[in-house]
Structures are given as structure tokens and as C-alpha cells.
Amino acid sequence: MNLMTRTRDDGGGTADVLPPDHTQAILEVTKEVGSVLKGSGCPFALVGSVAAYAYGIPVRLQHDADFALRAEDADTVVELLRERGVQIVEPPEDWLVKARSGGEQIDLIFALAGRAVTRELLDRAWILPVDSVHLPVIDPTDLMIGRLAALSEHHCDYGALLPVARGLRERVDWDRVAEETHDLPMAAAFLYLLRLLGVLPHTPQTGGDPARVRRPEEQRTEEQRTEEQRTEEQRTEEQRTEEQRMEGRRPGEEANDHD
Predict the structure, then answer these.
(1) CA-CA distance, 167 to 57, in Å (whole number)?
(2) How confident is the prediction for the chain on average, in pLDDT?
């Protein structure tokens, strides 16, 4: 089943346009490929929008079904998918294999935002029902780390990411997210936005990485508090100096009165 529609473009020709919602078609492909991967014995996990969907996030599935697996298992998985009639596409990228089934795209990913998929990452996956079929789904913390690591100056859609963060906030280790994305400006900015919005539920940490979680009412930085303390100390010192000066003047004034 191919749900692609065709519309006229500005030049008078036709163009393929994705409908607003591919959810059921993508779920069917996800179950098909997931069943093959389960039978292969190779570790894997759902990632991307389908993973968010599995966690109950209200997302519309439109583009593809993403599966994370180790690079060393790729040949085994590809051969099994071919036997099931899935079309395999060899892309120029060396970190994934693309496939198509039922008109829907499938991505078999070996690296998430430049980070190799490891057995440890796959072992952390949660087993969740995906439209009645139980499949391993990437751990919520790893999902957020991958989504944040993928942000860049050319692709920085906080609007799509915010519902995912809201829906997963109680299941994510936000300290680990901050630690593993501390050198990524777009990720740090998004975590700061979450603090401003009161999305992150953790209590503030003392010291350490400034990207660690803090409540909105506790967002004054250590630098601000230090500056306020410095100003108060300076004000106290000025008052003390003025009092000493005044005390030094009075004896002289009294002596002049006696004269």
C-alpha cells in the first residue's frame, strides 16, 4: 500500500507529497520488520518517531520506521529482509541501510548522531507493545540524547522535540543527558528552555555542569549569587569606612568647641 499522493507544483507539473499521517502504514511495516529482526537473534531497538509513539507520545508518523542495530549484524538482517521480499537500497551513507516495504521507508541505523550503536545501548531497551506486537524500544534517556545530538544550526526544530521531552520527562535521566550533550550548544539551549518552562522535575545540583537540571525559581546562577555577595560586602565595607571617618572627626570638632 502506497499512500503517496500527487499534486501540481508551481511549475505546472506534478510532485509527490506525503499525506499528513502515515501512522498505520508505518506501524504495519514496523511490525513486519520487527518480526524479522526478532527471529534473527540480532539485538535491535526501535528509534526515532516510532519509538516516541511506543512511549505514548502523540506524534504523527509520516516518514519512516527506524531500527538501531550493530553494524556487524547488518549483513544478516539485510539477507533476511530480502528473503521476505523487502527492497533493500544501498545509500551513500556508511552508517545506515535503507529499505522499502508496502510503499514505506525503513532505516536500519548503525550510528545515532555519529555515535555507534553498541550492545550496551541495545541492552537498555524497553520491551513495549507497538500496535499489539512487543518490540524493544530504545531507552528514554538514550532517545533524548540521540535526538539532542542530532540538532544543528541547519536542523533545530525544538517544536517537534518539546512534546517528546514533556512526555518522557519522568522516565529520563536528565543528568546523564546533560553530561553526554554538554559540548553541544543546541542541546544545552534546549535543556535551558526546558528549565524555563518548568518541564524538568529534578531538584537543582550544586556545582558541576551548568546544564544540569534546575527549577525555574532556582535558576539564579552561582555567578549571580557571587556577584550579589561581592556587592553586599563592598557596601558593608563602605559603611564601615564612613563610620570610622565620622568617628575620627568628632574629637577634633569637640576640641574646636572648647577653644
Answers:
(1) 6
(2) 81
